[in-house]
Structure formats: structure tokens, C-alpha cells
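Please check this today:
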Amino acid sequence: MINFSDNIIFQEPVCSFQRGNIMEAEIYKITDLHSELRKEIERLPGLEGSTARKSRTEDIFGAFSSDGSLLGVVTGKRFDGDCLLKHLAVRSDYQNKGTGSGLTGRFLSSYSGICERCYALSLPEMKGFFERFGFEQARSGALPDHIRETEYLQDIEIAGIVVMILKMPKKWPIV
């Protein structure tokens, strides 16, 4: 495990969450995706072997423990009046502990008031997770052409992916 707190530039933490009196994680918007952090992201469940890269317009939020280790990430991008949550990945030892919910809530909060709809690419077993945020399963082929036909989705195998859709509120609850 690599401690990123001393060797990476972040913006100020955008939110944090805790369980009882124990700080679970702080969520940062990642502005500098250097090689060590890229490698750590690529080790997360569901992202093994993928190529983590940050386009100029992609947003990446990372959850980090108090010792600076990476717990999970959410990535996405804005497309005109829509946004896309492309990846949500959390270390297996931090799954079902609020890390994914914190990351997803922070992602949605950053796009509320900006996007009309948010699409999420989900594995079938994660469908219930996204439904807790108000997402509904979109009809087959519902990912709009202006999102589906971009370079941004080149590394995604769409077969087997469930497209979820959420009508975005003007203001997402603070997380």
C-alpha cells in the first residue's frame, strides 16, 4: 500500500465520512494523476489491468484513509446536459462500509445543477446500489449517441453492462 498524502497534489478535501468517532476516509478531487497513483487505481477491483488515464475533462474523486492510502475512486465526465459515471471501484476490504456511497454521492453532488441526467455504467450485481441513489435501469441502448460514440468509452466493453439513468435534481444533498 502506498501512502499518497505526502507525494501528490490534491485540492482541499471535498468531503469526509466517519463511522462513530473513527474517521473512515476523506474524498478529494484528484487533479494530478501521477504514475504511482495510476498504478494503485489500476489495482482496484473491477479496474485490474485497465489503463487509468485522466483526460482534461474527466473528473476523478478518490477516497483516502487517514494514513493516505487509496480506498476507492469514481470517475466521470460531463457531456453537454448529461453526465456519465464511468467507473466506481473500491478496495475489497472497504466495500460495504460507505466508501462507494460517499464517492457516488460526491460525484452526483458535483454535477447537480449542471446536468439534467446522469448515466451510470453498472455491472448487473451493482444495479441495486445505484437504485439507492434514485437511478433506474434505462431501456436497452439508452446511452445517448453523444456519449456512446466518444473516445471516452473506448476502453469499456458495453456488453454485460447495465445502463442506469438518474434525473438530476437541481441540488444534490451535501455529502
Summary: The longest strand covers residues 70-79. The two ends are 27 Å apart (CA to CA).
